[in-house]
């Protein structure tokens, strides 16, 4: 009985760690997507700024 209880405890712990890892990966992916979108906006804004300065010359 102790062996079965120990096995169930180990499996439960592994499942909890797996869930925690997946949640962390979701957060990483969210931040990477946000960073990518911010880089696109920054690049677009920089291009708009450069165009407006070129047009004024």
Write up this protein.
The protein has 57 residues and is mainly α. It is built from one helix and no strands. The N and C termini lie far apart (84 Å). The model has no long low-confidence stretch (mean pLDDT 93).
Summarize the structure.
By secondary structure, this protein is mostly helical.
Tally of alpha and pi helices: 1
Gyration radius over CA: 25 Å
Q: What structural class results from the helix and strand content?
A: mainly alpha
**3D shape:** rod-shaped
| Extended strand count | 0
Low-confidence stretches: none
Q: Helix and strand succession?
A: H
Q: Please state the average pLDDT score.
A: 93
- Main sheet makeup: none
The protein's oligomeric status is single chain
Q: Helical residue percent?
A: over 70%
Report the sheet-strand fraction. Answer: under 5%
Q: Give the distance, in angstroms, between the N- and C-terminal Cα atoms.
A: 84 Å
């Amino acid at each position: 009985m102790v062996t079965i209880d120990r096995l169930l405890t180990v499996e439960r712990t592994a499942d909890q760690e797996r869930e925690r890892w997946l949640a962390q990966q979701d957060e990483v992916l969210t931040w990477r997507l946000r960073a990518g979108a911010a880089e696109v906006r920054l690049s677009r804004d920089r291009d708009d700024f450069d165009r407006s300065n070129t047009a004024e010359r």
